[in-house]
């Protein structure tokens, strides 16, 4: 790398432009500097929050340029670029367009029969040629989402120690206590806008995977970029390693994390506190911290503790709630009535279950002008000990207490379905196959169109499959699941299941927060995101029984979610980026990163 200063040029190019203007103008392309040749180290687009510091800009050429994933174009370097940047001879003679590179890679990916091989090929690509990775992901989102995200990312985390190649993300372990700020400074990017952090204790529905949970922040952040248009260099995946209670991992010689039981209590909270303070100190007030896949005994407490001091968001509690509420609101078109006319039963009363329940209750309460406590009475939850009822109140975890309604104890889900007579059944239990034939049949016997959401991930943990839901309900169920299922043919009719996954929400939600400079998250922002997502379901989608729009349109959907969330943030006085752009959808679209190669002169 040859560092050199470009202060004069950059001042000419950017001088005097406010941040807001810069977002709208969408800077991209090549920079030519007084006859010097150099690669544009400014990523093309994405929301930028901080001023560019010209004297840190450096230029790579030749071999190191090809080894730099952010700027490598591989076979797409033109003859001129190869000559100008000392690449001649380092590449085979053929010059490929980005489209041809994409075609070639998709062909190779499709030849792999094992999903994990596709995952590894995608991770290799991300490490080799970032723009091509995002182009593949954006152009083939329905096909590749299950590869870089659920279900395959679950298997990848389980086997992370064995498939581990180049490390991704930042690892902060108990060993770094007292010097987390120093560790953050080791990360090469300085202008971070989103951090997804896990401690690996509840990875999807697969339990404690310790340090190997890193696959989740990495995967979620690739969706922030591909689906929400947040530039890759602004994304920081973090895994906090406080040990693991997974004996299999502790006994595994290839385990990549600390080989000790999980730290708890004060030791745990002190490390998290140091991390949260260091993040704020290093990246400022407006960096978005997304908690992901923490176990519920920490998740609720961390959210409550930091929601007033940091821009924090728990995806499993809040993002999931927002996506499910959107699906329910959309489903009303198919099943009729208002939300308040329905009765909801959950299997699973943890982060996802109680998070969704609370947002549904809030929406009902707002729409019907009834107290929240009244609205909650329409919602029932079953945990591993049975229906949550008032006689269990004393022994319940705090997040379950609001759901302890008057009812006699009920042990089993089937009995609960028969007793509560729900119109909507939601699975957030991580227990695969928990929606048995009897349960689905009971739902179908009570409802013309039973609404069944099997949200647990990955596919192995789904409460039922799409095929089971449609067959056992004789084709009457409206079904969506956390991990994707193929379409099902039943009685000569094709049923297309939807995917109820927080991936619909967090990328657009995050973009909305970043582009408006929102400083704190309010529940109304989650409701706004739900509303925006529900509004994106078209008549054509409804005709297929879908309650979510297809992921193919996700960037457009994310721009709408971002705009609606930002509008609400401005309305609530939570947005700090002024003046407010007039057309927020256009502004959101203009802020989005696109993986187009720049031309290097
Ligand atoms: N589709 C999506 O977008 C999302 C899906 N999820 C999925 O939801 C699942 C749950 O996540 P989360 O809520 O965070 O996990 P939690 O651990 O917080 O909650 C799990 C809940 O399931 C209950 N449960 C466990 N076993 C049984 C059983 N045999 N019968 C009845 N209830 C049982 C637990 O009961 P108890 O409290 O008694 O232990 C607990 O209430 C995961 O699989 C996750 O992947 C999560 C977030 C988003
Ligand atoms: C989707 C997700 O966040 C989960 O399953 O945990
Ligand atoms: Mg999660």
UniProtKB/TrEMBL annotation:
Highest taxon, organism lineage: Eukaryota
One GO term (biological process): malate metabolic process
Keyword Oxidoreductase: yes
A Pfam family reported for this protein in Swiss-Prot or TrEMBL: malic
A single GO molecular function term of this UniProt record: metal ion binding
Active-site positions on this chain: 149, 220
CC cofactor: Mn(2+); Mg(2+)
Manner of cofactor binding, per the entry note: Divalent metal cations. Prefers magnesium or manganese.
Domain Malic enzyme NAD-binding: 317-570
Annotated residues for binding of a divalent metal cation: 292-293, 316
Location of the Malic enzyme N-terminal domain: 126-307
Enzymatic reactions: (S)-malate + NADP(+) = pyruvate + CO2 + NADPH; oxaloacetate + H(+) = pyruvate + CO2
Protein name: Malic enzyme
């Amino acid at each position: 790398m040859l560092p050199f200063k470009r202060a004069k040029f950059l001042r000419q190019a950017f001088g005097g432009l406010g941040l807001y203007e810069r977002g709208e103008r969408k800077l991209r392309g090549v920079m030519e500097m007084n006859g010097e040749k150099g690669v544009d180290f400014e990523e093309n687009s994405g929301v930028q929050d901080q001023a560019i510091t010209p004297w840190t800009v450096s230029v790579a050429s030749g071999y190191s340029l090809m080894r730099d994933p952010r700027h490598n174009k591989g076979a797409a370097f033109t003859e001129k670029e190869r000559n100008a940047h000392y690449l001649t001879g380092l590449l085979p003679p053929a010059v490929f367009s980005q489209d041809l590179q994409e075609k070639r890679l998709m062909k190779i990916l499709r030849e792999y029969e094992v999903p994990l091989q596709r995952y590894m090929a995608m991770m290799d690509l991300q490490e080799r040629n970032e723009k091509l990775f995002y182009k593949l992901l954006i152009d083939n989102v329905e096909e590749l989402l299950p590869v870089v995200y659920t279900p395959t990312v679950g298997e990848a985390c389980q086997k992370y120690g064995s498939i581990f190649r180049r490390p991704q993300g930042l690892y902060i372990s108990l060993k770094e206590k007292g010097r987390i700020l120093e560790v953050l400074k080791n990360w090469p990017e300085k202008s971070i806008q989103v951090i997804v952090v896990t401690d690996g204790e509840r990875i999807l529905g697969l339990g404690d995977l310790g340090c190997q949970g890193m696959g989740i922040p990495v995967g979620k952040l690739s969706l922030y970029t591909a689906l929400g248009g947040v530039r890759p260099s602004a994304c920081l995946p973090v895994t906090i390693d406080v040990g693991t209670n997974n004996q299999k991992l502790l006994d595994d010689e290839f385990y990549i994390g600390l080989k000790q039981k999980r730290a708890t209590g004060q030791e745990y909270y002190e490390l998290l506190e140091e991390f949260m303070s260091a993040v704020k100190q290093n990246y400022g007030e407006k960096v978005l911290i997304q908690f992901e896949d923490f176990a519920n005994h920490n998740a609720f407490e961390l959210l409550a503790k930091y929601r007033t001091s940091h821009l924090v968001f728990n995806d499993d509690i809040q993002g999931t709630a927002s996506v499910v509420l959107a699906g329910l609101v959309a489903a009303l078109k198919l099943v009729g009535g208002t939300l308040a006319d329905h009765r909801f039963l959950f299997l699973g009363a943890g982060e996802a279950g109680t998070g969704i329940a609370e947002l549904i209750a809030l929406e009902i309460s707002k729409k019907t002008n009834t107290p929240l406590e009244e609205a909650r009475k329409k919602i029932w939850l079953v945990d591993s000990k049975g229906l949550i009822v008032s006689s269990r109140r004393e022994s319940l975890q705090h997040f379950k207490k609001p759901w302890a309604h008057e009812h006699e104890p009920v042990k089993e889900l089937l009995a609960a379905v028969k007793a509560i007579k729900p119109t909507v059944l939601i699975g957030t239990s991580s227990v695969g196959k928990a929606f048995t034939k009897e349960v689905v049949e009971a739902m179908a016997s009570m409802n013309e169109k039973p609404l069944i959401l099997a949200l647990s991930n990955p596919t192995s943990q789904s409460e039922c499959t799409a095929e089971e839901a449609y067959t056992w309900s004789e084709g009457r169920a409206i079904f969506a699941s956390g991990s994707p299922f193929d379409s099902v043919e039943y009685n000569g009719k094709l049923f297309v299941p939807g995917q109820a996954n927080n991936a619909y929400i967090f990328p657009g939600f995050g973009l909305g927060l970043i582009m408006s400079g929102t400083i704190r998250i309010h529940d109304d922002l989650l409701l706004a995101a739900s509303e925006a997502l529900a509004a994106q379901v078209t008549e054509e989608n409804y005709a297929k029984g879908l309650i979510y729009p297809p992921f193919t349109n996700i960037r457009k959907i994310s721009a709408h979610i971002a705009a609606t969330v930002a509008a609400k943030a401005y309305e609530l006085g939570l947005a700090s980026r002024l003046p407010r752009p007039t057309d927020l959808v256009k502004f959101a679209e203009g802020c989005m990163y696109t993986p187009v190669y720049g031309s290097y002169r």
